[in-house]
């Protein structure tokens, strides 16, 4: 269970694991490592390298008597398309037979290791620290996030302008995960190939003692918006047709059959970890193209211990039609903003309705995939009232959220930080907020609506896009899975 691709260049305190104690009377210990090209290093106790990337076999003098030699191993790479994560080390104790004669083996052994996979953490795990950017126009948003995080009792790490250089999309730049072994465990950040102005933040500010770093570079592929990690999520633990996924399943968005896709090098890396078998959804119908624009997971006290939340234009139109039927057709969406529009005007917009029928079809396709791949029933899914609008682009029509996309929320235990939708008000209360509260608060969840309209929504992102959460590791140990 070797630590992999996480060597901290800022400290000499290497993460190592004892692998074997060999005792004998005298002679040489012959170490041979198979399939080791740039995969691991084998050390003696004082971190003297025995075998590694440049030396695959080595003789180690043995001191005789009851002396013990302790060996340690450090992993250098995660499992990937060209590496299944397995390492074999052969050890032989050789006894001299006299001058001019080769040594003869006294003892041989073989040790097989599996490099620890990189493991993602679902929304149902306990938060540790929240990450968000400070920009010249998000002070009110930052204050709301700070208040929410402090109320929850978690840590807040702010990436200031000198580091983010105006790039506010913390979720898109990185994804937090961890590695685990019987002797040690620590978080590892996966750095996206998007490489915006936040590109230096994961390496310069997160990598440190007991905090690893890994990335994948798309050398021969075009990087698209789908390579940002708002397009990388993970489900809570599920059981599907008798097969258990105790660490959940990774979820990414792709194109069917053609269009923008997550780069193959990142997909290969995710599939190679094996412990969270990925699911591919259709997300290329969105301008930004991220799965977090139409889905998320929240904890729940019953059933599977979570709910899947899906954006639903049908649910949105149901709210607006109910308002109209109850005499609130003149109530305004975006009241007080230049974008203000009445319920009647929204319901009379045929182009908007046609676009939302298309969007609902796309989401329904993904709904069916998620039900099948996660073993969900309709009772495990909650539809949030969200409308979209379809924009004409050079490469075809794609959708964006019509008002702040409430499914794009931050989940901090039972506290939810939800984009404020600026819906029509009835008796002084936002009808959309009231509807969402009625759906989520019976689960014991607490809703805080955060104004992200100007600094995020207008730039085609929301609360989740602009934040990130480091969470505790799962109590389940990956090596108990059959890989």
TrEMBL record:
Do the record's keywords include Cytoplasm?
A: yes
- What is the predominant subcellular site recorded for this chain? cytoplasm
Asked whether the keyword Transcription regulation is assigned, the reply is: no
Q: Protein-arginine deiminase C-terminal domain spans which residues?
A: 106-480
GO MF annotations for this entry?
Answer: calcium ion binding; protein-arginine deiminase activity
Pfam families in the cross-refs? PAD, PAD_M
Record key words, sorted: Cytoplasm
Localization (cell): Cytoplasm
One annotated Gene Ontology cellular component of this protein = cytoplasm
Q: Which InterPro entries match?
A: PAD, PAD_C, PAD_central_sf, Prot_Arg_deaminase_cen_dom
Q: Which family does it belong to?
A: Belongs to the protein arginine deiminase family.
Name of the molecule in the record: Peptidyl arginine deiminase, type II
Originating organism: Cyprinus carpio
């Amino acid at each position: 269970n070797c630590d992999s691709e996480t060597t901290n260049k800022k400290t000499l305190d290497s993460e190592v694991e004892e692998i074997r104690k060999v005792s004998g009377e005298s002679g040489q210990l012959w170490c041979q490592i198979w399939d080791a090209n740039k995969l691991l290093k084998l050390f003696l106790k004082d971190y003297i390298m025995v075998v590694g990337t440049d030396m695959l076999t080595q003789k180690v003098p043995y001191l005789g008597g009851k002396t013990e030699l302790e060996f340690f191993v450090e992993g250098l790479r995660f499992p990937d398309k060209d590496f299944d994560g397995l390492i074999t080390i052969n050890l032989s104790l050789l006894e001299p037979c006299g001058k001019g004669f080769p040594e003869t083996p006294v003892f041989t052994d073989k040790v097989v290791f599996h490099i620890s996979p990189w493991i993602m953490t679902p929304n149902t795990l306990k938060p540790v620290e929240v990450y968000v950017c400070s920009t010249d126009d998000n002070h009110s948003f930052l204050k709301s996030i700070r208040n929410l995080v402090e109320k929850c009792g978690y840590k807040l790490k702010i990436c200031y302008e000198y580091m983010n250089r105006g790039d506010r999309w913390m979720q898109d730049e990185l994804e937090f995960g961890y590695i685990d072994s019987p002797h040690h465990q620590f978080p590892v950040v996966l750095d996206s190939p998007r490489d915006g102005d936040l590109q230096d933040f994961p390496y310069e500010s997160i990598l440190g003692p007991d905090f690893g770093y890994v990335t994948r570079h798309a050398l021969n592929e075009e990087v698209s918006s789908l390579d940002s990690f708002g397009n990388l999520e993970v489900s809570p633990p599920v059981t599907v047709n008798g097969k258990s996924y105790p660490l959940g399943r990774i979820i990414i968005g792709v194109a069917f059959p053609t269009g923008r896709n997550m780069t193959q090098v990142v997909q290969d890396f995710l599939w190679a970890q094996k412990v969270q078998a990925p699911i591919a959804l259709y997300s290329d119908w969105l301008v930004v193209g991220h799965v977090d624009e139409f889905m998320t997971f929240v904890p729940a006290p019953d059933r599977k211990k979570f709910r899947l939340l899906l954006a639903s234009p049908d649910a949105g139109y149901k709210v607006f039609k109910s308002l109209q039927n109850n005499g609130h057709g003149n109530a305004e969406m975006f009241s007080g903003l230049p974008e203000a529009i009445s319920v009647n005007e929204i319901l009379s917009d045929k182009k908007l309705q046609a676009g939302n029928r298309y969007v609902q079809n796309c989401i329904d396709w993904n709904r069916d995939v998620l039900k099948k791949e996660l073993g969900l029933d309709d009772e495990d899914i909650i539809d949030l009232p969200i409308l979209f609008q379809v924009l004409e682009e050079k490469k075809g029509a794609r959708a964006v959220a019509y008002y702040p996309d409430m499914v794009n929320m931050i989940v901090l235990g039972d506290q939810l930080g939800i984009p404020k939708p600026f819906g029509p008000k009835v008796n002084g209360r936002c009808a959309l907020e009231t509807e969402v509260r009625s759906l989520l608060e019976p689960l014991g969840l607490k809703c805080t609506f955060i104004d992200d309209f100007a600094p995020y929504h207008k730039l085609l992102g929301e609360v989740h896009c602009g934040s990130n959460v480091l969470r505790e590791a799962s109590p389940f140990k990956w090596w108990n899975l059959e890989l």
